[in-house]
Design goal:
The complex is a heterodimer of chains A (555) and B (102). Chain A is mainly alpha-helical and 555 residues long. Chain A has helices spanning 29-33, 38-66, 77-113, 121-143, 157-161, 166-193, 206-237, 251-285, 292-305, 321-349, 358-381, 383-389, 393-423, 429-456, 470-500, 540-554. In chain B, α2 (14-36) runs antiparallel to α3 (42-62). The chains are: A mainly alpha (555), B mainly alpha (102).
Chain lengths: 555, 102
């Protein structure tokens, strides 16, 4: 790797963290627990989602250890069912859905559009409390016996056959859903009403566009999940019979309701990741994002198309052939806006002055792995191949490529990218580049063998498997340990950097966003006076002129 | 959109509220009456149609959507649109199941 870098830090011998900032303004636990400051709430969220990520990660470790050998020897089969169910539930509802929006989105959206806070600060805090309450309830459910329906709560298994904590877990997810609705609502109102003068829709950073699309999905989709879960709870407690054929109900109705939310939820998870990648790719190739408008609208297109494809999760479940045909065709549509993004990022790189700081390495990881994840989605959306591949490890590999290879990479890219803004200090560059590399290698070693296992026909959700699948499973488990190291490293060095990292200064990356034109860490009120946006997003020439002006005025 | 119009709340006269209330009562009576008629599958259709009209009245007048900004109307419309997608496309499955295999 060459020494070329865009990092521009202030002179470390004289640089200081600004005395007044959102972290130092008030002290004490209560000042955090009762805060209305979007930046502090973002930090609260960051701590809590990291906690849940490591619980979910530990459960993933147990799954991989069990699958090291063909027999079910580490865990009993029903314990295994509980472990993978809780892994899914925690990772999806308590990590992936809030990951980028509630942390980076919360922190950055007001800064990026020139607002002093989100539109509804108390609702924002309430959303965190709901999240934490829901999380505690989910963990309580896990400790007191767990749940073994898978994260999908598929009926009639969840309503008639299992005796685990379906109701408690259902309530936990119901509450977490409201936390997510509040976040989405807050973003929509803020983006509509609180943009600073001159900040037109098409001058907003693509990060904000991505979060706008995500918020639409959160607000319109999540209530349907709530309805589906309430119906499951009512079915279990009083036997209302909507999902019970003996009473004139239909078990498939549950899947329609559930996937009506949970397919868009996939985009709730990935769109904020794409939002991060747009910012990172632009900054580290020193170019405006190619096809800004197309990338902005593709986010909205993904959000809209996302509501029309849900039944592709149900091809083999007994829905009609004609509806398989329709949903299979519609699924192909959703690939278009995702491809628009990937191609536009690639064109942004073309002839850019690319440097390879950690966020960019993660962003490259995202582009490759998300593309593989997305393309294998096309295999699965094609109804013929889906019949062979569904319910095998091919599915597991597919969505882990999108969610872990895509979303988690994007989350880490964003976390490293905005870490200097959030804390005022740089993370150590060399070791974090190493962590990005370790994550990439570990990820591929974990999940690529699962594609092969899937095509060979290894079913998912079983604690044991035929011995001929062992070699690939050993690869996968070995990869998981490397991946674990890749995720542990950032926790260590980011914590270290809080005290010992280099002082970052206002704009270490020479980026153009409004959030980089203020002190790091920002003031509680963000801006001393409301800024006026007088240039397009990603205008690097504007940044150069600003710098010249500064030099001229100092000189 | 001017700053001014956003903060100006339209004041709905009591007359309108009373009229809507009366309409809701009449429609409720109609629902009860319709349930005594033997219309086969149309019993449900009629009951649902009346319920939709009532809900629309409540949303438009009691919830002030009729007097709100275009943005509010768009938001309500988006919810409705999503709901239609949910019900419509789920029904695609239910209706075509009886057609059997091609």
């Amino acid at each position: 790797m060459s020494s070329a870098t865009i990092v521009n830090l202030p002179d470390q011998s004289t640089a200081r963290i600004p005395k007044m900032n959102y972290l130092s303004k008030e002290n004490g636990l209560l000042s955090w627990l009762l805060t209305g400051d979007h930046k502090r709430i973002a930090i609260l969220y960051l701590i809590s989602i990291s906690f849940f990520f490591f619980i979910g990660g530990a459960l993933a470790g147990l799954i991989r250890l069990e699958l090291l050998t063909p027999q079910s020897d580490l865990l009993a089969t029903d314990t295994y069912n509980k472990v993978f169910s809780m892994h899914g539930i925690i990772m999806i509802f308590f990590f992936l859905v809030p990951s980028v929006p509630a942390t980076l989105g919360n922190f950055l959206i007001p800064l990026m559009i020139g607002a002093k806070d989100l539109a509804l600060p108390k609702i924002n805090l309430l959303s965190w409390y709901l999240y934490v309450g829901a999380g505690i309830l989910a963990i309580y459910a896990m400790i007191t016996g767990g749940v073994d329906t898978g994260w999908t709560f598929t009926t009639p298994l969840s309503t008639h056959y299992v005796n685990t904590n379906v109701i408690t877990t259902g309530i936990a997810i119901f509450i977490a859903g409201f936390s997510s609705i509040f976040t989405g609502l807050n973003f929509i109102v803020t983006i509509h009403k609180m943009r600073c003068p001159g900040m037109t829709w098409f001058r907003m950073p693509l990060f904000v566009w991505g979060h706008y699309a995500t918020s639409i999905l959160m607000v319109l989709g999540t209530p349907v999940l709530a309805i589906a879960l309430v119906l499951v709870i009512l079915e279990r407690t009083v036997g209302i019979g909507v999902f019970d054929p003996a009473k004139g109900g239909d078990p498939l109705l549950f899947q329609h309701l559930f996937w009506f939310y949970s397919h868009p939820a996939v985009y709730i998870m990935i769109l904020p990741g794409m939002a991060v990648i747009s910012e990172v790719i632009s900054t580290f190739s020193r170019k405006r994002v190619f096809g800004y408008t197309a990338v902005a609208f593709s986010s909205v297109a993904i959000a809209v198309f996302g509501f029309f494809v849900w039944a592709h999760h149900m091809f083999i479940m007994g829905i009609s052939n004609y509806s398989v045909l329709i949903f299979s065709l519609l699924t192909m549509l959703v690939a278009v806006p995702s491809a628009i993004k990937i191609f536009n990022w690639a064109f942004t790189l073309y002839k850019g002055s690319i440097t390879f700081e950690t966020p960019m390495l993660y962003a490259f990881g995202f582009m490759g792995l998300f593309t593989i994840g997305g393309m294998t989605g096309i295999f699965l959306g094609t109804s013929g191949t889906d019949i062979h591949l569904t319910e095998t490890y091919f599915i597991v590999a597919h969505f882990h490529f999108v969610m872990v290879g895509g979303m988690l990479m994007a989350f880490l890219a964003g976390l490293h990218f905005w870490w200097p803004k959030m804390t005022g200090r740089m993370y150590p560059e060399k070791i974090s580049q190493l962590a990005a590399l370790v994550t990439f290698i570990g990820f591929n070693l974990t999940f690529f063998p699962q594609f092969i296992l899937g095509t060979l026909g290894m079913p998912r959700r079983y604690a044991s498997y035929p011995p001929e699948f062992q070699v690939l499973n050993v690869f996968s488990t070995a990869g998981a340990t490397i991946l674990g190291v890749g995720y542990l490293l950032p926790v260590l060095y980011l914590t270290w950097s809080l005290k010992y990292g280099e002082i970052a200064g206002d704009n270490p990356w020479q980026a153009t966003g409004l959030e980089w034109q203020m002190q790091s860490p920002p003031l509680t009120e963000n801006f001393r006076e409301i800024p006026i946006m007088d240039h397009e997003a990603y205008d690097y020439e504007w940044l150069e002129r600003q710098k010249e002006k500064e030099v001229a005025s100092v000189g | 959109m001017s700053e001014h119009s956003e903060h100006e709340h339209h004041i709905v006269s009591p007359k309108v509220y009373v009229a809507i209330f009366a309409a809701l009562l009449i429609l409720t009576g109609l629902t009860v009456a319709a349930s005594y008629l033997e219309m086969g599958v149309f019993n449900a259709v009629v009951a649902l149609a009346i319920a939709v009209i009532k809900a629309t009245l409540v949303v438009l007048f009691f919830m002030h959507v009729k007097y709100s900004t275009k943005l509010t109307k768009l938001t309500v419309g988006a919810g409705l649109f999503t709901f239609i997608v949910l019900v419509g496309m789920t029904l695609c499955d239910y209706i075509t199941r009886a057609w059997g295999r091609w």
